[in-house]
Structure formats: structure tokens, C-alpha cells
Design brief:
mainly beta; Porin; twelve-stranded antiparallel barrel; 14 strands; 52% strand; globular; disordered N terminus
């Protein structure tokens, strides 16, 4: 894990420095942002985390084509069961329509004594590190992800694929597929995890536009999911970003 983090640091430093002739970086290219979102259910890769309305926040910094940040997700009912509380650290690099991402996921257990966040040893770690490649244009979002670091007991090797087709600003369609079992996605067997229809509109609240998304999500693979999280066949979800 240390080698992975060191490699990311070297890559970011080298590319940020290349071609600038030792000039001082332009501060106008450096930005820090905070995003916030709320959803009636935290549905991720076809599963319900926490069985509760959920809130998430994203704190990140960007410099030119690089970003690094931390995202936290929490249930609104205060319950720690169902893995509805998790932390995600990430680093990304964007080149044209492609984005290369490394995510470090940590799902919190109900008992605090079981959550050793700083333990990255392969014998005990609860961290799952995923490498992803994303593609985006005006009509299509697509991604493929594979777990590159986890606990030694993790013998799964599933690859997650997801695509969203956006025919217009008010409607989109999402499909997700897992090639085999995967600890990160909480599935014992591969299959179609997400078939979603999403409606989008902007609400005017206090003279501000508030994006609202309503999703009808079907999970044909729900019977192969871990009982530790919610695994229903169908969901209806409302969410918004601030």
C-alpha cells in the first residue's frame, strides 16, 4: 500500500512540474471545493446501504487535471448498521474525455472497536482500494473498476462496469454489471446489479436552482448480495446535490 501511495505522489508531482520551466505554478489553476448531497436511500451498485435516508459530503482540491479529495457518507437515522457510513479517499487525473481514479474505501462496522481505520496491513485491513477508468461525453458516462488492494482473505476478482446514457437533460438510463464476486460491491456472484431509469429537473428554491433526480432502479442480481446490506429487487430514490 505504501508503494501505491508513493507512486501516486510521484506521478502527481512529476506531471505538475513537467514543462513549467521551474516557474511558480499559476494559483488560478488551484481550487478547493465542497459538495453536498442528500438521498432518500443510499443505493450504490444496486444495494441499499444503511436502509435510511443518507447524506454525503465531498471535500477536494484540484490543480489543472489532477484532483485529490475525501468523501464521507452517513445515514440520517443515526444507525451504524448496514454499512451506511463509509469514508472514501481518492486521487484522479483527467485527460480529455478519460479520467483515471484510485479510490480507497472504508466501510464502518456497527461497533467502533472493530474499526481500525489506520490499519493497512494485508492481514487485518478493512480498506478496499479500487482503480477505475471513466469516460464521459455529452451523451455517455462509462466506467470500469477493479480492486487492486484489500485484505488477504479477499479471494474475489470481479470487475465492475457501469454506463449511463443521457439522451437529453431530463432523462438518463443506467446499467451496471459485475463479472464475478467482489468484496467491495458486497456480491457473492457476478451479474447485472443495476438497471435504472433517471428523471432530472431543476427546482427553484430561494432563487437558486436545485438539481433533483428521481430514479427507478432494478437489481436482477439482488439474491447474490451479502445479507449485511439491503438487497431488494427494486428501489425508488430521490436525491439532490447542493
Amino acid at each position: 500500500m505504501k508503494k501505491l501511495l508513493l507512486s501516486i505522489y510521484i506521478l502527481v508531482f512529476a506531471n505538475s512540474s513537467y514543462g513549467q520551466d521551474q516557474a511558480v505554478p499559476d494559483s488560478s489553476n488551484l481550487s478547493f471545493n465542497v459538495d453536498l448531497g442528500v438521498a432518500s436511500r443510499n443505493i450504490w451498485r444496486g444495494l441499499d446501504y444503511g436502509s435510511s435516508p443518507s447524506i454525503w459530503g465531498d471535500l477536494y482540491g484540484s490543480f489543472k487535471k489532477f484532483s485529490i479529495g475525501a468523501m464521507g457518507t452517513s445515514t440520517l437515522n443515526g444507525s451504524k448498521s448496514g454499512y451506511g457510513n463509509w469514508m472514501e479517499l481518492y486521487a484522479s487525473y483527467t485527460f480529455k474525455n478519460l479520467t483515471f481514479v484510485v479510490d480507497d474505501y472504508f466501510f464502518f462496522n456497527s461497533e467502533d472497536s472493530l474499526n481500525n481505520y489506520f490499519d493497512y496491513t494485508p492481514q487485518n485491513t478493512q480498506h478496499l482500494v479500487e482503480a477505475r477508468i471513466e469516460y464521459e461525453n455529452d451523451y455517455l458516462d462509462a466506467m470500469v473498476g477493479y480492486v487492486i488492494y484489500s485484505n488477504n482473505a479477499d479471494n474475489t476478482n470481479g470487475v465492475y462496469l457501469e454506463a449511463t446514457y443521457k439522451p437529453n437533460k431530463k432523462l438518463s438510463f443506467t446499467a451496471g454489471y459485475l463479472t464475478a464476486s467482489q468484496w467491495l460491491s458486497f456480491y457473492d456472484k457476478g451479474g447485472i446489479t443495476t438497471l435504472g431509469i433517471n428523471g432530472h429537473r431543476n427546482l427553484n428554491v430561494f432563487k437558486q436552482k436545485l438539481p433533483l433526480t428521481a430514479s427507478l432502479i432494478l437489481n436482477p442480481n439482488y439474491q447474490n448480495a451479502s445479507p449485511a446490506v439491503g438487497n431488494n429487487l427494486i428501489y425508488f430514490v430521490l436525491k439532490t446535490d447542493f
